[in-house]
Amino acid sequence: MTKMTAEAPLTREMILNAAEQVLRRYGPEKTSVVDIAKFLQVSHGTLYRHFPSKAALREAVTERWLYNSILLPLQAEAEKQEGSAEVRLRLWVETLISKKRTYAAEEPEMFAMYAAVTIEAEELIKVHVNGLVRQIESILEYGVETKEFQSGNAANKARAFFLATSTFHHPAHAPEWKNPEIDKEFDAVWQLLLSGLR
Amino acid sequence: MTKMTAEAPLTREMILNAAEQVLRRYGPEKTSVVDIAKFLQVSHGTLYRHFPSKAALREAVTERWLYNSILLPLQAEAEKQEGSAEVRLRLWVETLISKKRTYAAEEPEMFAMYAAVTIEAEELIKVHVNGLVRQIESILEYGVETKEFQSGNAANKARAFFLATSTFHHPAHAPEWKNPEIDKEFDAVWQLLLSGLR
């Protein structure tokens, strides 16, 4: 018979769940890998075999958050095949903006961690942004079918739309989101971009 | 007869010249008000009568730099009344982007100071941005006259154009400017905005 250990095997998912809880409780600055190991009741050596550094853990937590809380909910909006493309695109970008603003306001320390990862972990962010751009592209292609938008290089236009709205969703702009003019400013950008797509 | 002092009166201009030299030499982090006072051969009490804090000095140096090195050179481009509005607008925004990139690459410590001031000194930055937006507005109005651009609320469109190009000139995006795709990305945004203006 195989010898059974008392401990359940430590999965990546278990570690990330624990890391997220501990990061939330102590704040990303004060949390150490040892804190997370203690929470999981494993040695920090065991934890280091899964994540070689605190930076790697922070990145993995951010990556999961970006996927589960941003990319996945927006995917539903991007996949709809009914209604006006203009309305769908506006709803998509407003959802993105609202998720970012809520996170920045309600969990400022976790948001600061995500903003730092955005600068450090180029590859991770590139994958995330490419995912978002593909969603925009799919709405633009739908808009060409419904004759709301002009045809052309949809991939380029989608990237341009994403970059041109950065002020409202890129974490580096978070200090500006408290500006009382921000919604008016978004509307001015939206109108200009919409004219460009039509 | 009025009593003459040996010292020349300390002007704001003299202080800012000294502050800029000392900040450049030691770096904004390491420079203290005392260093600047020493450079000017005055007591730091004298200096504090003009600038109540290191933050006030940093802001004044940044304000002068934004005015002399960004707003003023761009004003010439904005005031021309000849040629194509499209070419003028592209030249204006490329000049802005190139000035920011050069500063970020050649004087990274001074650029970091300017980026920090951008976040802290809201009113100063608001005045600067309003100046830039008025320059864009003047080119857009010229473009309506030359029949290159559609008429409409030029002030709103100018602000939208400024915000939609933030990725390429807002100091918070400086880490992205080293991306080899950045010029291609600018071009995609430019094409979309131009379609929106026409």
UniProtKB/TrEMBL annotation, chains A, B:
Annotated ranges, domain HTH tetR-type: 9-69
UniProt keyword annotations, A-Z: DNA-binding, Transcription, Transcription regulation
Gene3D superfamilies: Tetracycline Repressor, domain 2 (1.10.357.10)
Top-level taxon: Bacteria
Pfam family, one: TetR_C_27
DNA-binding region: 32-51
SUPFAM superfamilies reported in the protein's UniProt record: Homeodomain-like (SSF46689), Tetracyclin repressor-like, C-terminal domain (SSF48498)
Keyword Transcription attached: yes
Protein's name in the database: TetR/AcrR family transcriptional regulator
Annotated source species: Paenibacillus apii
